[in-house]
């Protein structure tokens, strides 16, 4: 016999396997997979990407990356993933985004070989790291500073 449970949101009876259990929650899952997915989508529009919580009544456990990946609709997860990546990269002091219009690439620039010159691995655009702009071709940073 399959054990069934009623979803607290839609009221539909479903097997226990259809009720996501989250690590860290101290309660039985109350929400079926479909309603859980809808909750994640609604929360992604209402709260910060890293503040989506369990839909359980009074539960404040924040969903982890894998929970969102597993239960969110693909377009919701894609947005969550992009925001998660952007947050991680914002903490990397050597990460630079390419400034060429239309290029969405970025990379970590240590400067060991190229110094202040950033060359985008995707489009080849060259930027001056010191001045945070397109590279001033044929002119050192010092000469550029004097000219400006």
UniProtKB/TrEMBL annotation:
GO terms for molecular function: transferase activity; zinc ion binding. Gene3D superfamilies: Zinc/RING finger domain, C3HC4 (zinc finger). Keywords: Metal-binding, Repeat, Transferase, Ubl conjugation pathway, Zinc, Zinc-finger. It comes from the Eukaryota. Residues 3-148 form the RING-type domain. It holds the Pfam family IBR. Coiled coil: none annotated. This is RING-type domain-containing protein. It comes from Sporormia fimetaria CBS 119925.
């Amino acid at each position: 016999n399959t054990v069934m449970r009623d979803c607290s949101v839609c009221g539909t009876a479903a097997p226990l396997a259809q009720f996501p259990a989250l690590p860290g929650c101290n309660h039985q899952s109350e929400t079926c997979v479909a309603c859980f997915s809808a909750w994640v989508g609604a929360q992604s529009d209402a709260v910060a990407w890293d503040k989506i919580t369990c839909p359980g009544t009074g539960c404040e456990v924040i969903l982890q990356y894998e929970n969102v990946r597993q239960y969110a609709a693909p377009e919701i997860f894609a947005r969550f993933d992009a925001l998660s990546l952007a947050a991680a990269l914002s903490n990397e002091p050597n990460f630079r985004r390419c400034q060429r219009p239309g290029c969405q690439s970025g990379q970590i620039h240590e400067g060991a070989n190229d110094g202040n010159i950033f060359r985008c691995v995707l489009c080849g655009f060259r930027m001056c790291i010191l001045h945070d702009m397109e590279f001033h071709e044929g002119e050192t940073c010092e000469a550029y500073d004097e000219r400006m």
